[in-house]
């Protein structure tokens, strides 16, 4: 390969790192990571997301670059719409777990005055990190990564087709791009997990508040994205 081609392919790694910072990617991974209490497993979430993302990119790359198939605009928009639905489902699932984790009961209380009774809640901590096997942990981030990879595959393959000279170079570029996104999301998922992990024991109420925020943001952003794709970009016209 010529030096310019090597530079172009190497640039794919940097762009992959940047790609991991897209808002829909960070929101999805934040919602998954909010359920974790272990730094290693939180990093694993990002790595598995990147693995699924790269796998779907490579599958689409083979179809488009090698078999010369095209992705219709409606199909590309449908892939993006599936990301919106997935964000809504992820957020709704996180919120349902939050609701199940809160126990509300009557509590008798006295603070230098007459005894009185009021509602009181004990907020339970998230599931322990060891309560699920790594295989089970891998299912959700891997499939979420695959959905994100499909959503971005149309634009990426179009870019590769117009800039790189051969299908082999295109596949190498997409693989390097995928590895970059994997590395970027591994770092980001680790960083995102820190507030959840460090507040789960000593600041239990704050931990539940940021978990609630993560689930709510996922639902709201998913609804916004679904509206934009359906009505602004006219998926269903």
Explain how this protein is built.
- This protein is mainly alpha-helical and 237 residues long.
- The protein has a domain at 24-96 and 152-237.
- 74% of the residues lie in helices and 7% in strands.
- It has seven helices and two strands, in the order H-H-H-H-E-E-H-H-H.
- It has helices spanning 3-19, 23-33, 39-66, 73-100, 134-163, 167-199, 204-232; strands spanning 102-109, 116-123.
- Strands 1-2 form a two-stranded antiparallel sheet.
- A hairpin with a 6-residue loop joins strand 1 and strand 2.
- The longest helix is centred in the C-terminal third of the chain and has 33 residues, at 167-199.
- Mean pLDDT is 84; it is low at 102-107 and 117-135.
Shape: globular
| Strand tally | 2
Instruction: Let me know the average pLDDT.
Output: 84
The count of helical stretches stands at 7
Q: Which residue ranges are poorly predicted, with pLDDT under 50 across at least 5 consecutive positions?
A: 102-107, 117-135
- Over all CA atoms, what is the radius of gyration? 22 Å
- One letter per element, helices H and strands E, the order comes to HHHHEEHHH
Output the structural class.
mainly alpha
What is the straight-line distance between the termini?
Answer: 45 Å
Main sheet?
A: 2 strands, antiparallel
Strand content: 5-15%
Helical percentage: over 70%
Strand order of the largest sheet: 1-2
């Amino acid at each position: 390969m010529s030096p310019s081609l090597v530079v172009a392919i190497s640039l794919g790694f940097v762009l992959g790192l940047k790609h991991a910072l897209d808002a829909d990617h960070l929101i999805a991974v934040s919602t998954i990571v909010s359920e974790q209490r272990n730094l290693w497993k939180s990093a694993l979430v990002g790595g598995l997301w990147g693995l699924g993302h790269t796998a779907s990119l490579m599958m689409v790359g083979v179809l488009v670059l090698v078999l010369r198939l095209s992705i219709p605009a409606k199909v590309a928009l449908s892939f993006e719409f599936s990301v919106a639905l997935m964000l809504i489902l992820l957020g709704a699932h996180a919120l349902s777990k939050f609701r199940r984790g809160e126990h509300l009961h009557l509590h008798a209380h006295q603070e230098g005055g007459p005894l009185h009774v009021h509602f009181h809640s004990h907020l339970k901590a998230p599931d322990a990190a060891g309560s699920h096997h790594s295989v089970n942990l891998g299912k959700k981030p891997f499939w979420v990564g695959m959905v994100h990879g499909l959503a971005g595959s149309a634009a990426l393959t179009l870019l590769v087709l117009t800039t790189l000279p051969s299908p082999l170079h295109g596949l190498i570029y997409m693989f390097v791009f995928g590895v970059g996104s994997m590395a970027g999301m591994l770092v980001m998922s680790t960083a995102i997990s820190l507030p959840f992990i460090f507040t789960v024991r000593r600041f239990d109420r704050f931990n539940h508040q940021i978990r609630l925020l993560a689930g709510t943001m996922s639902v709201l952003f998913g609804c916004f994205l679904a509206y934009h794709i359906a009505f602004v970009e006219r998926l269903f016209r």
